[in-house]
Automatic annotation (TrEMBL):
The keyword Cell cycle is annotated on this UniProt entry: no
Gene Ontology annotations of biological process type: DNA repair; DNA replication; regulation of chromatin organization
Originating organism: Crotophaga sulcirostris
Gene Ontology annotations for the cellular component aspect, listed alphabetically: FACT complex; nucleolus
Family designation: Belongs to the SSRP1 family.
Gene Ontology molecular function terms on file: DNA binding; histone binding; nucleosome binding; RNA binding
Name of the protein this chain belongs to: FACT complex subunit SSRP1
UniProt xrefs under PANTHER family: FACT COMPLEX SUBUNIT SSRP1
Function (record text): Component of the FACT complex, a general chromatin factor that acts to reorganize nucleosomes. The FACT complex is involved in multiple processes that require DNA as a template such as mRNA elongation, DNA replication and DNA repair. During transcription elongation the FACT complex acts as a histone chaperone that both destabilizes and restores nucleosomal structure.
């Protein structure tokens, strides 16, 4: 049995929203990676207490309960995957995957059960619905009634904001069922209550997003920003990442807190909290806790009394409370030695930081892009000047980010960084004269093999060749079909040549006449290839040898049925992804076998192409000879037809003088100008003259006698 199971397009239910991602089950535990935020949930196998399989709106779902009361829900499974999951749970986690369907009777009267961080409303033994108590933002009580309010979900078009439960009174003395219900909810709910004293307070910190100066009060479970106009309460559970970034001037520091879900002010959402510090500003900090509590809670990460730079104290306290690592810039250094690049994004100037696993831009608006969500990057020429260039990033979801006005000197450093991280580059840019070929990048990316890379390269070359051919053809047609200046010159040339033939023209006219035939000759030269071009654009010969397949495609064709049998019901897309993963994990020795087969196929193709080209040339020569022979036959047939017509015309002309000699007399000039178009009619003219001579002599004698 396999040691791991992987599922794509699985949805995790978090705070009322369904986040898609990838789920991986291994012997060590369960790992889910969110595609949107990149956040990873890791559940150790020893922590799993129960697994439930049930039918949900998105097919079938898996609910996991841990020993400490946490609940994880994953939807998007197929019904056929139950047996595989059940066997995996039994073998590696020693758990029976229970099947429990939801109750769909539609009753609104039942029993409420609290289990860990989950409120379950049941009818009999079947649950109707479940509410994660971490979604509850407020709990209020009334007479025989409890009202639960929920956090607003920005990703959903419609959000559930409130649920009311009617709790009937009981006869037991000293126990209020309404208060007991509310206490069970509040003990697990994500309710922000500023009770007690803050652990520490930072006064008048400069905040760029949201803009202003705020007092930051650190509580055990949340962060309180208190400003002159607005207050924000940020639970530590919403903090996704922490960044500490040096400013380009080396005198200031950015401390960036990534939030999911974001804090809200009206219709504005702030996904990042950005604080700006001066490196010279120091502080002495005393925590509002005794030393034993500090040691017990923070385990040496914090002490009761601390002193140092203000940005160091804030970042150290936040790291200890949030329990997240702080991300700092890696080994990247720009042209000026700074760890960032000055650029513009959406008409605002800021700083772009290349990190070890992504890019972050500060500060307006802040943007964080992870490498694993990048489809490709592109280096583009600046729109206004050649002294700068644009850096474009497109994600797999189709979102495009353009960072413009980057100094030309930063190009080499940024290109080397992108190339070292093995990101796909749409164009090769202008490194060292801005001449980098696609093949060089493909060689550098061999370690991280892409399943489609070899096939895509061949198809891309064909598309580029066709595009170049079509663009060249269209360019010639455009130059010749629309050039009003040259058309006017052609018209003027005809009139000028006529004028010079009839009358003497000036020097300017003669100069113009000498220049214009050169233009005309140039046009003729350009049109000649265009007439022959359709011959070169014939369709592919079906008898031509087919291109050889790459090593990957040969392997895929040989193993496609095996992959289908190992993964029944797999889709075409998932099959391609799985094949790519198997090929990538294959050893070098096994790949060499398929490389040899691909090399043999290539040699056979080259040999077949040579034979095909020789045969096509011979066939072309035979076709040319047959064309000439056919043309010669047509010419002979045409000559015979003309000769036959000429003899019939001569016979009719010899008979006509006997009937009416006065009407049929033709002078030599008339005959030569009218009927001597062909060389064969000269003989007919001499015959006509001989026949007309007696008539001329008789007429002359008659006129003499008169």
């Amino acid at each position: 049995m396999a040691d791991t199971l992987e599922f794509n397009e699985i949805y995790q239910e978090v705070k009322g929203s369904m986040n898609d991602g990838r789920l991986r089950l291994s012997r060590q535990g369960v790992i889910f990676k969110n595609s949107k935020t990149g956040k990873v949930d890791n559940i150790q196998a020893s922590e799993l207490a129960e697994g439930v399989w049930r039918r949900v709106a998105l097919g079938h779902g898996l609910k996991l309960l841990t020993k400490n009361g946490h609940v994880y829900k994953y939807d998007g499974f197929r019904e056929s995957e139950f047996d595989k999951l059940s066997e995996f749970f039994r073998a590696h986690y020693r758990l029976e995957l229970a099947e429990k369907d939801l109750c769909v009777k539609g009753w609104n009267w039942g029993t409420v059960r609290f289990g860990g961080q989950l409120l379950s409303f049941d009818i009999g033994e079947q649950p109707v619905f479940e509410i994660p108590l971490s979604n509850v933002s407020q709990c209020t009580t009334g007479k025989n009634e409890v009202t639960l309010e929920f956090h607003q979900n920005d990703d959903a078009e419609v959000s559930l904001m409130e649920v009311r439960f009617y709790v009937p009174p009981t006869q037991e003395d000293g126990v209020d069922p309404v208060e007991a219900f509310a206490q069970n909810v509040l003990s697990k709910a994500d309710v922000i209550q500023a009770t007690g004293d803050a652990i520490c307070i930072f006064r008048e910190l400069q905040c760029l997003t949201p803009r202003g100066r705020y007092d930051i009060r650190i509580y055990p479970t949340f962060l309180h920003l208190h400003g002159k106009t607005f207050d924000y309460k940020i639970p530590y559970t919403t903090v996704l990442r922490l960044f500490l970034l040096p400013h380009k001037d080396q005198r200031q520091m950015f401390f960036v807190i990534s939030l999911d879900p974001p804090i809200k002010q009206g219709q504005t959402r702030y996904h990042f909290l950005i604080l700006l510090f001066s490196k010279d500003e120091d502080i002495s900090l005393t925590l509002n806790m005794n030393e034993e509590e500090v040691e017990k809670r923070f385990e040496g990460r914090l002490t009761k009394n601390m002193s140092g730079s203000l940005y160091e104290m804030v970042s150290r306290v936040m790291k200890a409370l949030v329990n997240r690592k702080i991300t700092v810039p890696g080994n990247f250094q720009g042209h000026s030695g700074a760890q960032c690049i000055t650029c513009s994004y959406k008409a605002s100037s800021g700083l772009l930081y290349p990190l070890e696993r992504g890019f972050i831009y500060v500060h307006k608006p802040p943007v964080h892009i992870r490498f694993d969500e990048i489809s490709f990057v592109n280096f583009a020429r600046g729109t206004t000047t050649t002294r700068s260039f644009d850096f474009e990033i497109e994600t797999k979801q189709g979102t495009q980010y353009t960072f413009s006005s980057i100094e030309r000197e930063e190009y080499g450093k940024l290109f080397d960084f992108v190339n070292a991280k093995k990101l796909n580059i749409k164009n090769r840019g202008l490194k060292e004269g801005m001449k980098q070929s696609y093949d060089e990048y493909a060689d550098s990316d061999e370690d991280q093999h892409d399943a489609y890379l070899e096939r895509m390269k061949e198809e891309g070359k064909i598309r580029e060749e066709n595009a170049n051919d079509s663009s060249d053809g269209s360019g010639e047609e455009t130059d010749e079909s629309f050039n009003p200046g040259e058309e006017d010159d052609d018209v003027a040339e005809e009139f000028d040549s006529n004028a010079s033939a009839s009358s003497s023209s000036g020097d300017g006219d003669s100069d113009r006449d000498e220049k214009k035939p050169a233009k005309k000759a140039k046009i003729v030269k350009e049109r000649k290839p265009r007439k022959k071009q359709p011959e070169s654009k014939k369709g592919k010969d079906p008898n031509a040898p087919k291109r050889p397949m790459s090593a990957y495609m040969l392997w895929l064709n040989a193993n496609r049925e095996k992959i289908k049998s190992d993964h029944p019901g797999i889709s075409i897309t998932d099959l391609s992804k799985k094949a790519g993963e198997l090929w990538k994990a294959m050893s070098k020795e096994k790949k060499e076998e398929w490389d040899r087969k691909a090399e043999d196929a290539r040699r056979d193709y080259e040999k077949a192409m040579k034979e095909y080209s020789v045969g096509s040339r011979a066939e072309g020569a035979r076709g040319e000879r047959s064309k000439k022979k056919k043309k010669k036959q047509e010419k002979q047939m045409k000559g015979k037809a003309e000769k036959k017509g000429a003899t019939s015309k001569s016979s009719s002309s010899t008979k006509s003088p006997a009937k009416n000699t006065s009407e049929t007399f033709k002078s030599k000039e008339f005959v030569s100008s009218d009927e001597s178009s062909s060389g064969e009619s000269k003989k007919e003219d001499s015959d006509e003259e001989a026949a007309a001579s007696p008539a001329r002599s008789s007429e002359d004698s008659a006129s003499g006698s008169d």
